[in-house]
Automatic annotation (TrEMBL):
InterPro entries: Acyl_CoA_acyltransferase (IPR016181), Bact_Acetyltransf (IPR050832), GNAT_dom (IPR000182). Keywords: Acyltransferase, Transferase. The keyword Acyltransferase applies. PROSITE patterns: GNAT. Pfam families: Acetyltransf_1. This is GNAT family N-acetyltransferase.
Length: 151
């Protein structure tokens, strides 16, 4: 498995993002979904990482959006056939490493209460719950977390 910074505008990555959207659509109503679309993922303040399996197929992804005061983790997802292998943790570590390199000292994220594996991953990586940030509003279907990182 390899992880690299890539464009999200590739057929296998687009398919992976579509799987993530379908999964989240099954859990949350549209007003509680805060996903970035493909055009947003291609903006200059966004770093997009892709995990690829041994045959080069996209199996996971994650984005880091840089804002002036913090970075936000978005679109972290691993295809079901890649779960349980530490890929999500490696993607998260890659994004955190890139944030440190960019001198970003605070990472934030929004996820949902029905994503137990995601909540466990973030908690085990040192993220703590917090209130809404940026343009988010208080929503019972949102869990907000943050982590101070060494920059």
């Amino acid at each position: 498995m390899t992880i690299g910074v890539e464009s999200p505008d590739q057929p296998d990555v687009i398919a992976l993002i579509a799987e993530l959207d379908a999964y989240q659509d099954s859990l949350y109503p549209p007003e509680s979904r805060h996903a970035l679309d493909l055009a947003s993922l291609k903006q200059p303040n966004v770093l997009f990482a892709v995990a690829r399996d041994e045959i080069g197929q996209a199996i996971g992804c994650g984005a880091l959006v840089f804002f002036p005061e913090f970075g936000e983790i978005k679109r972290l997802y691993v295809h079901p056939r890649g779960r349980g292998k530490g890929i999500a943790r490696k993607l998260l570590m890659t994004l955190e490493s890139r944030a440190v390199h960019a001198e970003c000292k605070l990472l934030k994220l929004e996820t949902g209460p029905y994503q137990a594996a995601a909540l466990a991953l973030y908690a085990s990586a040192g993220y703590e719950r917090r209130g809404p940030f940026a343009d988010y509003t208080n929503d019972p279907l949102s869990v907000f977390m943050q982590k101070h990182i060494a920059a």
